[in-house]
## 1
Amino acid sequence: MGALIVTKGTRRLAHYLNTLFSNLTPFAPGGAYANIVTDLGPNSTITPSPKYPFLYQLSEAYRGKRIGGGDVFYPDSHGKHPNLLPRWKFFLRKELDPTWHDTIREALYQALTAGDYNKIVFDSVVDSAQYVMVADEYNFTADGNENNAAGTKYLKIVLVTPATQAPYPLDDQTPH
Amino acid sequence: MSFFNWPVQFSQCSPHIMGRRKRLAEGLLDLFSSTFPDINYEMFWDVPILNAQAWRLGAKRYVRLYGGLIRHPSVTKAGLALTIAHETGHHLGGPPYDPDLPWITWQGQADYWAARTAMPLLFGEKACNLTLRGAREIIKLHSAMVSVFEEDAPDLLPECRYSIFEAGARGRNMPTCGQAAFAEILGDSCNFKW
């Protein structure tokens, strides 16, 4: 997401999720996050419902289970962004259509089990409609071109959505 | 996730002015499209947010211009052109790349490339004045937004953005504030040579 103007909260969330999936080793069989892969797949212990859709339940199920402490799918709360997590949770629960929960779930499962992706990255784009797009991409070489060599492939998941209507107040404006 | 807190613009201007602004944006997007044919330029007139985006999916590269920005009364042709140039710079501006989103050029470098490379390519000898005017419009908008949404980007303050635009327009090197801002994002791991 390159944009004319970027918000700090936006950057924090994108940074956290992209860091989480920047190294897929913990998601491999026997790894610390192997159960997450199971829960993304056909033998999942998570049963989504209209009130508690899949990604919300997954995020809640792995609270406090991050390597080194903290929640797996939520960044640590930040004093300057107290509303970031409530807004994100509201979006996952109330605004992201169940169809796109499933699309993201399937994309994550595919990338984590295929064995030839080196990371998963997320982006978001504003639109008047909501949908999710998934594609393979490759790391850049130093000259800015794609490097199609083995080991440079990653999965890109782009969330296209209208702005959230989460009813939480804006956070403090003071730069830090 | 960029859908948080972006201010919107619901313009009260007349249908005549709205039509004129829409045609202006269409004309600029056509101009950029013919100059940078590898980029897909899109206008989302009905989306009221005050922003524009660059994004990529697979091999395709996109620039989106939203209606809220196009309709904003203080943004003229200069501001819109520089905005589109900035978004194009996210794709073509080269290193340094954004450390969090490494498939795009970092914000400050996108500004610099827009002023130094894209604007002269499109507007020739008028580029410098157009860039500086556009920069003032963007910075004014940027500064105003700091007070209405969940904090602005800490890595690039409005004053520094103006310095970057100006340096690019006048053919100078990336200013120290831009270099410092990028170094601050990377912290100890910063070894980028400008």
Note: Confidence is low (pLDDT under 50) at residues 1-5 of chain B.
## 2
Amino acid sequence: MSQVLHIFKKDIRHLWPEILASLVLTALFVKTYPSTWAVGYRISRLPDIIATIVVVLVPISWWLMTTRLIHDESMVGERQFWITRPYRWKKLLAAKLLFLSNFLYLPILIAHVLLLRIAGFHPTSFLPGLLFNLLLIFFILVMPTIALATVTSSFAKAILTLLGVIVGVIVLAGLSSLWGQSIPDVDGGVTLGPVVVVALGLSVILVQFATRNVRLSRWLLVAAAVMIAAGALDWPQRAFVPMEYPQSSPTSTPVNLAFDPNPSHHLEASPSADDKKLSIRFPIAISGVASGTAIQAESVKVLITAPDGRNWSSSWQSARQYFTREAGLSTINVDVDRTFLEKVKDLPVQVRLTWALSRLRAGKTGQAIVSDEEFAIPGNGICAEQGKDYNSSLACRFPMRQPRLTRFAAMWSRQPCSQTQSPDATSVFASGWIGTLDNSPAEFGITSVWTSALYFPGQGFAQRDGKGRTYLCPGTPISFTEYALVDRSQLVQWFPEMKLPYRIDPPFLNLLDQD
Amino acid sequence: MTPVIQTQNLSRSYGRTEALKGLDLTIPERAIYALVGPNGAGKTTIIKLLMNILRPTTGSAKVLGHRVSDVAGEVFTRIGYVSENQELPEWMTVRYFLDYLRPFYPTWDRNLEQHLLRQFDLPLDRKLKHLSRGMKMKVALASVLAYRPALIVLDEPFSGLDPLVRDELIEGLLERATETTILLSSHDLAEIESFATHVGYIDRGRLLFSDEMATLTDRFREVEITLNQPEPLPANFPATWLQPQAAGTVIRFTHTEAANGAATTELAQAFPNARDITLTPMTLRSIFLAIARSSSTQKGREA
């Protein structure tokens, strides 16, 4: 232990400027970050700009401190004085981890506790989440930094490597947008890839500290980079989709989806993010959702077949919508190739949608009453009205993570809240979803407080003449129902033969003209 | 007596380049072993292999009874390594450098440390990055001598130093020579001639010889034979006679086994027409030159 402390003290003496910078930034983070929770947060305000800059600088200061720490006993090269001194590698590694525990983990843990307190939460209630987030910070930020520092001989090379990593991430993001798919959530792919990458990263650190075998370590890092690239392009996840989303049999279908033939719900074409595609909106009739359940549509893919046999199929596209027992109608937008649409514009085509669905079961329920001030909601959140510009939603903050997947619903008044609510005034039912199916106690982040909006689709906005405006008034109850995953499946839906729109519909053209 | 260093067929390649070829080396206890050879001969490679800084391609080695792959951690409490191009923690002052290293070594001698500081006249409060090259070598050597290691390994320790500093370092080293074994490399014979007890000569990755200094100077003689009349060199010239040259009635060569008292008789029998046979002791420099030239001639022939 004495050698551990001895190296630890030396590192403090040498790296005090880095320690100081990191501590100051962490303190600034605690001071400035709460401004981003405020109602009406905009990045254009100076305090918010400072808060955003500090959020970026904190991990940079960690990277700087960690890299300099590891380079103090550089693992690369043959000329370092320490490699022929009686250093025990386990003690050297322990000294470095002790340093990080004191000057990275302890300050950020204190910062997280303070942020929770400032946000109005009791930190002791979220101890597992606080510790879990530290673990995530280690695996996602600190461990890669240590691994890269152990295979670089100087700070300049570490910066070049970091730049290389950043360029790699940008390239991957580009490739992902070109070739990536909105693969439905899969547990296997999500777990396997990171586990392998973490194992490779830890191996690099151990190999370097124990043997300084730089060549082997660099190969291990290349393997990790390949795994990350494969993950970014969804390759491992694709393999898990058929396993985790088996075809549902006609008797066990979690929901019945059909084309909605109502002429008022016609097919529409709108611009897509991809210029070569058009977004076609299909109206959907929903039925057969069992009581106490809801269906989360994760992703959808489409196959369009013309009478002459020509066909076009898409990869998985994001669907992200919820089907409930009450909702009888919905729509799904699917991006379709413009050229294909041009070719089949006069032909009745067959459309097949394949849905990746998650069946959800209703769990805990709760209620909150809207207040002029901040008010607590079930699931540990604290919410407040957004203000005039954002009156279709409530601004909420949550401890350690976004809430578990929750459906919320409330009656919106057709009368302004300032007016006496007449008993016969009609109200409008509105509901929305928030949160994720993830059950872990914390989400990765340098913050311990997460913000999110309770968004009631379609409410709060008025037409130009002011008609149609609804209000969520103080005293209104909001109901909350938590949902948990039951199972997943794929559902194939055939549409009757139809002609697809092949150009952007006028309302969207008008919008484009305004742009 | 157990050798402090022993290697068997130790080799190291960098890609296709063989930096060291089949080294068999034994260094006994208390020896001051000088590994000499031209730049790029493989001296530093040998030392780095012995210090487990590099891994051998083939062969094995033992240092202080430990397999070379185990030379790490605690083993370095008994080994002191100083190299001309070692990177020291330049941000440290001399005082802090010594303070930092002291707890690593159970045998660190504070009195000896003080003595060395005075002897080398080291500025305690100056950062290592502000020291001259000679001063840095002194600090490095002081930090090694202070814990009285069983083996001191010095890679080109005097290279580029002015004679005064070099003499100071050698003096500091020799004061401790009775209690330790020293292996040092140098490309300058004159540096080590005065104090090395053993010497090995390495060229192009091959150890050409390794011997005690006294034996070496005893063994090598410059031979000059004056004949009655000019004669060609004998066809069966022994391998132990290096660099033979004939000029008229005079034949000159280097005898590598002249320590044997029978050398003169042997020469008289080999050259019955000799009018005069002279055996002259050689300097270390002449011995190495003879060996190096002979080696290069032999290589030329083989090629």
Note: Chain B has nine helices and 14 strands.
